[in-house]
């Protein structure tokens, strides 16, 4: 029983790694081939990941990281020892410009968008709030 749970977790991690490491959106058949996971199991895992927004699919049905996977990656990468310095710079810039300031990276996969890694809101009464980790059109 314990080995089945570990095996299920291993399979899920394997699928996530295949999608995360792919240079472009990857097909289910490529994931099945590369991972060795049985086809029905792989499709079930892909559907569960898609339902939870960990992955998304393009018009061809190929998979790429979704907003939840990107959010976790950002949390791991950007909530480290550099956060205080980064926020101090953004606070200073926001005060000087009297505008919302953010740090975002562009991503072209599957379509052009940017993902905010950090932002400091201005004190204006009317604001547009885009959550950190949320992909937005360029």
Automatic annotation (TrEMBL):
Biological process terms in GO annotation: negative regulation of DNA-templated transcription
InterPro entries registered for this protein in UniProt: HTH_MetabolicPath_Reg (IPR050707), Tscrpt_reg_IclR_N (IPR005471), WH-like_DNA-bd_sf (IPR036388), WH_DNA-bd_sf (IPR036390)
Gene3D superfamilies per record: Winged helix-like DNA-binding domain superfamily/Winged helix DNA-binding domain
GO molecular function term, any single one: DNA binding
Coiled-coil boundaries: none
Segments forming domain HTH iclR-type: 6-67
UniProt-listed PROSITE patterns: HTH_ICLR
Alphabetized SUPFAM superfamilies for the sequence: Winged helix' DNA-binding domain
A Pfam match: HTH_IclR
Protein name in UniProt: HTH-type transcriptional repressor AllR
Species, as recorded: Vibrio thalassae
